[in-house]
Amino acid sequence: MKKILITGGxxxxxxxxxxxxxxxxxxxxxxxxxxxTYAGNLANLTDVxxxxxxxxxxxxxxxxxxxxxxxxxxxxxxxxxxAAESHVDRSISDPTAFVMTNVIGTVNLLNAAKDNWKGxxxxxxxxxxxxxxxxxxxxxxxxxxxxxxxxxxxPYSASKASSDHFVRAYHDTYGLDCVISNCSNNYGSxxxxxxxxxxxxxxxxxxxxxxxxxxxxxxxxxxxxxxxARAIDVIFHKAETGETYNIGGHNEWKNIDLIHLLCSIMDKxxxxxxxxxxxxxxxxTDRAGHDLRYAIDSTKLQEKLGWIPSLQFEEGLEKTxxxxxxxxxxxxxxxxxxxxxxxxxxxxxx
Length: 350
Ligand code: NAD
Ligand code: TYD
Known about the structure:
This protein is an alpha/beta fold. It has a domain at 2-187 and 224-249 and 295-311: Rossmann fold, CATH 3.40.50. The protein has helices at residues 12-24, 64-74, 88-93, 95-116, 155-174, 196-205, 225-238, 255-270, 299-305, 313-326, 328-334, 338-347, and strands at residues 3-7, 29-34, 54-58, 78-81, 125-131, 178-183, 186-187, 210-213, 219-221, 223-224, 244-247, 252-254, 281-284. The strands form 4 sheets. The protein has a 7-stranded parallel beta sheet with strand order 3-2-1-4-5-6-11, sandwiched between helices. Helix 5 links the parallel strand 5 and strand 6. 44% of the residues are buried. The protein binds nicotinamide-adenine-dinucleotide and thymidine-5'-diphosphate. Thymidine-5'-diphosphate binds at residues 88, 185, 195-196, 199, 211-213, 218, 220, 255, 287. The site of thymidine-5'-diphosphate (TYD) has 12 residues, from helix 6 and strand 8.
């Protein structure tokens, strides 16, 4: 019997983590805390919203008083912290929002845990979900390991790096039981279409240009989101206090190769001639400070905790495309309203 607070549970990865914990652990009570920003969507959780072991609370983690009241009232056993501003391009146009949520919000949560869990730190756990982007950019060779020095370049990765440092500081200074994991790029269902894969699926479907930054030479290491949620489950239950784990799929793709693969899957699914969707590929101005390559070495997680990725990328990408094509209403709901103005501003289109 555990009561777990999951923050950011209405977002992309958070909704998969909430779903996994609600379904796999009927004895646990899962409280999903989310501010419901543009990226938070309770429609991601309709299949679990009526389960007896699930509850939602609308709270902004920058509100330290609301957090403290919630911790006092609920006596959580653990926190799995995913709430964040998560999109690099938005961090370039509005860095302060990233400092507020990712840094101040994380410190507020740490304070709520530190103050409300006094005398019980050995029975509680604070699990912080982070990104491989804190390590900076790789050249053509090498991989990020847990001891790679932090070297963030974007306001997003700088804010996540800062939050990681605070989590470690609360472990070292106050003895809070803290664990961190740093994961590579995720893909799968319920992914907000500002990120590369769902944005490209949506544009290909609608015969709109598919914007590829620079020459499409940048490399990302893609992991299926349900494999990430399973890694989070394993780390939450098995990691030693104070430990960090890298999570990744050993699945590096150049953006342009990934987009060609996606176009060919979409040609088949939409009954188009091979090569038709690829005509939509449009090279656009590169992202400022664009990290060349990310690649994660997840040997520690595989050897110590026995996690391995389950799905080949081609299969996962096809499943993902199927989900977007079958969930037109979800896609049209999230791409109406504010999404249009974001898109026009980001991609200079009308
Ligand atoms: P997302 O943007 O889809 O979801 C973030 C969620 O946090 C949303 O539901 C949003 O409403 C909520 N949120 C934002 N600000 C909040 C605030 N002030 N108070 C309460 N809730 C707030 O993000 P995601 O892709 O699901 O990422 C989740 C976590 O995983 C983030 O911490 C991110 O840094 C990390 N991560 C993401 C990836 C990836 O590929 N997407 C990879 C590694 C790590
Ligand atoms: P993204 O999905 O934003 O994730 P991240 O920046 O966190 O890795 O971008 C993935 C890669 O795709 C990254 O190299 C930037 C690139 N990209 C494009 O080429 N075009 C786009 O429209 C977007 C959103 C991203």
